[in-house]
Each structure stands twice: as C-alpha cells, then as structure tokens.
C-alpha cells in the first residue's frame, strides 16, 4: 500500500508527544494525530505542573525509567530552548511503616538513591508548613525530585518532533484503526492514513480504539488554595513537591507557589480512584461541585493549616487505572503492527520521556533501555 508514514502515533498527550519526538529524532518517518491541540485541558496532561520523583514508591522497577526520563527531560529542555523542569527536591511523608515512606525508602535502597530521613522536629525546622506531623511520622527528603511543566512539556515535545520531520494532524479524531495484512489503516473523518505500525497513546480514550483492554478511566479534580497569612512558608523552595500519608485518611500531594504572583498552592488527594468515579472520557463532566474538594478541605485544616478553607481554583483531569496500577507498554499478543502506551495509573507524567523512548525502541524492534517486563500489556490475559 502507499504509505503516509512508517509509523503513526495516535494521541499526543504526555506519552504520545514524547513517543513522536523520540521516533522523529531517530529519523523514523512518523506522523502524529491528536483530536484536540497539544497542551489541551481535556485529558490527563494539563494543570500547569506535575511532580517528578526518582525513588518511585509505586514500583522499584520504575526507578531506572525515572532516572532515564530526567536525562531526557533535560535533552528536551535543550532542544526546545526553554526550562521545563524545576529541581526543587521533594518530601515523602507519613507513618514510618506506611506505603509512602516505606515504598520510597525501598526504591531508594534498591537503586542507591541518596535520600535523607527527617523526624518531625527536623521537618518542622526546615519546612514550617509541615510542622504538625504526628509522633511516629517521618519525612524522606529526595533531592532529585522536582516539578515538570505540564502543558508546555507536551507542546515542546511536539514542536521538537516536527523539527525532526514528524507530520502532525491536530483537531483530528481517529475513529478506527484497521490492522490489515501489510500494515495499519488509521481512519479519520477527513481521510484514511496508511502506515506500517501504529502507536496508541490515547490515554483515557484507549479502549475506544482497542476494545477489551483492562483500563478504567476515572475523573480526578486538581485544587489550588491560597495562604491566609504569610505566604513565604508556602513558596516552592519551602514547600517543595510532596506526598503525605495521613494514616486512615489516605494521602495528600502538592507543592507550593512558584510564579511570584498568585501565591496559589496546588494540592490533591492521592489515589483518588478510591473515591472518584469511573467515566466515559467523552462525557467526563468538567463542571465542578463541592464534592470535588470537600474531602480534601476536611483533611487540610489539620494537616496543612494556614490555607484558605475553600479552593481558589478547581479543575478536573483524568487518570486511567489498570488492575495493578502499572502501565501497559508493548505489543499486545506480539502484534507487529500495534504498540500500546496506555494505562497511566496516575503517576505517569514523570516517566513520559522515558516511555516515549521505550515506545520508539519497541517500534524499532529493539530491547528497551530500562527493563519493563512489569508493564507487559498481556500480563492480565
Ligand atoms: C490530577 C492528576 C495529577 C497527576 N499528578 C501527577 C504527578 O504529579 N506526577 C506524575 O508523574 N503523574 C501525575 N499524573 C499522571 C499523569 O498526568 C498521566 O500519567 C499522564 O498525563 C498520562 O498522559 P497520557 O499521554 O497517557 O494521556 P493524555 O494526556 O490523556 O493523552 C492522550 C491523548 O490522546 C488524545 N486522543 C484520545 N483519543 C484520540 C483519538 N481517537 N484520536 C486522536 N487523539 C486522541 C487525547 O486528546 C489526548 O491528548 C497526574 C494525573 C492527574 C489526573
């Protein structure tokens, strides 16, 4: 068949934009298709910032991927000519035997990441906004943690990919992918696109193109609050990226203000999947109600006093859960025409550049630089 490119990447959020960049940078003939515009606010990759950590408490196997991703984020900054990563360091706090602290220490020990354990007195001195940790709770300081730009990172990856020759179709929804004998027909309302292989990075929309995947998209709010008094303890350098386990109440995450203007502090609930509802991504319901912040505000009064009791801003986002919270990366059933990069689990932005590289390796039939057996898309069959 006459080809439009060798490879099509469908969906240019954090993962697809990185795959497009990595494929184009290797000289692969590649096109990308996005139903909205890069950096839009309808999927999983918006909301200004994302937290980056290398001591990944979600799975020790993610640590090499995070480390590689950091190198690639710096490469993207250089290629795009603007900063995308702010190395703030980060705090992982909670009961010493809780999943946040023990998962972080386990990942750090396994991979030799230098972390520092702080008791609640030391924490209160260095980070006054976290002064009221209960007895028995500690903090782990991870110096390599930081903050990634969200929308701008996606836009930068698409821009750099285009400079390397990638063709990009925006405002174009793929309605179907047809795996045919000699490749793939990517159907859009305007025209069909013919390629040898397709990379599906459609985030919460994945099962619309590849039915039957074990994916559950959930709606998740992001909330911003303003300090009621002195804003300095909530500046990013004093209130760097953190996850704090509160015992039976789950965990909160967030970071301080950094733009010097609004002083707004971003906060959210970890693993909102326990509370937040499964959705159809085409009908996600972006209108917000008090139900989107009331559980969090109830926790903040004790956990992080000194902030407004109502959020100053709320927006919604989506997370795509898998049964084991790990990603689906690879060729389902070994199909030589189809590569999946889906199932973000709510912790996938930091890894997007490394995932883009891994997807490019898989397309090219190479071993991935970081071992990724735990993300095999066939593991639930
Ligand atoms: C509130 C919240 C906070 C988070 N915090 C963090 C964090 O601090 N650190 C971290 O590492 N991760 C975090 N995450 C997770 C992270 O944001 C996601 O893992 C990541 O954004 C996933 O990106 P994606 O490319 O898979 O999905 P998306 O960004 O949703 O991209 C999928 C893209 O595919 C497009 N698309 C879908 N279907 C089609 C189609 N048929 N045709 C064309 N285009 C299509 C969509 O429009 C979209 O652009 C958070 C997530 C949420 C919701």
TrEMBL record:
It comes from the Bacteria. The keyword Flavoprotein applies. SUPFAM superfamilies: FAD-linked reductases, C-terminal domain (SSF54373), FAD/NAD(P)-binding domain (SSF51905). Residues 6-361 form the FAD dependent oxidoreductase domain. Its cofactor is FAD. The keyword Flavoprotein applies. Keywords: FAD, Flavoprotein, Oxidoreductase. This is N-methyltryptophan oxidase. It comes from Lentzea flava. The gene is solA.
């Amino acid at each position: 068949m006459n080809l439009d490119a060798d490879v099509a990447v469908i969906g240019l959020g954090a993962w697809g934009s990185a795959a497009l960049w990595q494929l184009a940078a290797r000289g692969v003939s590649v096109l990308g298709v996005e139903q909205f515009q890069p950096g839009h606010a309808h999927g999983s990759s918006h909301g200004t910032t994302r937290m980056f950590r290398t001591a990944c408490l979600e799975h020790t196997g993610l640590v090499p991927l995070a480390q590689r991703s950091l190198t690639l984020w710096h490469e993207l900054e250089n290629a795009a000519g603007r900063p995308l990563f702010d190395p703030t360091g980060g705090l992982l706090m909670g009961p010493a035997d809780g999943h946040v602290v023990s998962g972080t220490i386990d990942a750090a020990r396994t991979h030799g990441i230098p972390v520092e354990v702080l008791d609640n007195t030391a924490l209160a001195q260095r980070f006054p906004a976290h002064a009221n940790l209960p007895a028995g709770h500690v903090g782990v300081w991870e110096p390599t943690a930081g903050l990634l730009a969200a929308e701008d990172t996606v836009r930068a990856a698409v821009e750099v990919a285009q400079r390397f020759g990638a063709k990009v179709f925006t405002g174009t929804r793929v309605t179907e992918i047809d795996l045919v004998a000699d490749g793939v027909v990517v159907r859009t309302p305007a025209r069909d696109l013919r390629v040898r292989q397709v990379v599906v990075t459609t985030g919460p929309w994945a099962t619309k193109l590849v039915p039957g995947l074990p994916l559950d998209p959930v709606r998740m709010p992001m909330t911003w609050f303003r300090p009621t008094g002195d804003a300095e303890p909530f500046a990013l350098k004093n209130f760097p990226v953190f996850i704090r386990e509160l015992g039976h109440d789950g965990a909160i995450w967030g970071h301080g203000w950094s733009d010097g203007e609004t002083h707004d502090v971003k906060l959210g609930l970890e693993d909102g999947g326990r509370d937040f509802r499964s959705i159809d991504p085409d009908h996600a319901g972006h209108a917000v109600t008090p139900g989107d912040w009331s559980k969090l505000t109830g926790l903040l009064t004790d956990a992080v006093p000194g902030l407004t009791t109502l959020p100053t801003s709320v927006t919604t986002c989506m997370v795509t859960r898998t049964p084991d919270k790990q990603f689906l990366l690879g060729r389902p059933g070994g199909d030589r025409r189809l590569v999946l990069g889906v199932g973000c689990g709510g912790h996938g932005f930091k890894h997007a550049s490394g995932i883009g590289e891994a997807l490019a390796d898989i397309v090219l039939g190479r071993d991935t630089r970081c071992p990724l057996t735990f993300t095999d898309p066939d593991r639930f069959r």
